[in-house]
Amino acid sequence: MRYELTKELETGNALIDKEHRELLKAVNDLLDACGKGEGRSSVQKTGAFLSNYVKTHFAHEEQLQVKNGYPGYTSHKAFHEKYKKDLNDVVEKIPLSDASISDLAALNNQIGVLVAHIKFEDKKLGQFLQKN
Ligand SMILES: [Fe+2]
Fold first, then answer.
1. Range of 114's domain?
2. Number of domains forming the structure of the chain
3. Distance from the CA of 73 to the center of ligand 1, in angstroms?
4. Per the domain annotation, does 97 fall within a domain?
5. Cα–Cα nearest to 107, from 47, 22, 33
6. Inside any domain, residue 73
7. What is the 118 CA–ligand 1 centroid distance (Å)?
8. Ligand 1 centroid to 38 CA: how many Å?
């Protein structure tokens, strides 16, 4: 399967949507690599990319929220902080175990959490930004 920024996931904010596309592209690259039997070498690389990209992307979302007085800022930021830590924990374990199937499953699980966050919380943010 491939992740795609469907209408359902679009926030309507150009910067946020562009960065979400980049994130999903990195995930797809990882899945493609796994399909070609390259999973072990690329899971670590993609995991590290995601971990870094997510930090920059979350910071951009938070800047937009502060600038526009978003009422859901505190809980949205709390999610970001927890997510960065959880993703980092998953990614940090990869080199030790040489990208096992369980690493891949854990990473995949984190992506699922991120997609759900986009679908509900970022979408809500996008709607707010369009009105304000
Ligand atoms: Fe977010």
1. 9-131
2. 1
3. 10
4. yes
5. 47
6. yes
7. 6
8. 30
Long-range (24+ apart) CB contacts under 8 A made by 2-9 are 2/28, 2/31, 3/27, 3/28, 3/111, 3/115, 8/119, 9/115, 9/118, 9/119, 9/123
37 Cα–ligand 1 center, Å: 32
Residue 2 lies in a domain: no
> Is position 24 within any domain?
yes
| CA atoms lying within 13 Å on the CB side of residue 126 | 20
Q: The pTM is what?
A: 0.90
Cα–ligand 1 centroid distance for 120 (angstroms): 9
Give the residue among 29, 5, 26, 25 at the shortest CA–CA distance from 122: 5
What is the predicted pLDDT for the residue at 32? 79
Q: What pLDDT, in 10s, does the model give residues 39-67?
A: 677 777 878 888 899 999 999 999 999 99
* pLDDT, tens only, 76-125: 999 999 999 999 999 888 877 777 788 878 888 999 999 999 999 999 99
Domain containing residue 46: CATH number: 1.20.120.50
CA of 36 to the centre of ligand 1 (A): 32
Q: How far is the CA of 117 from the centre of ligand 1 (A)?
A: 6
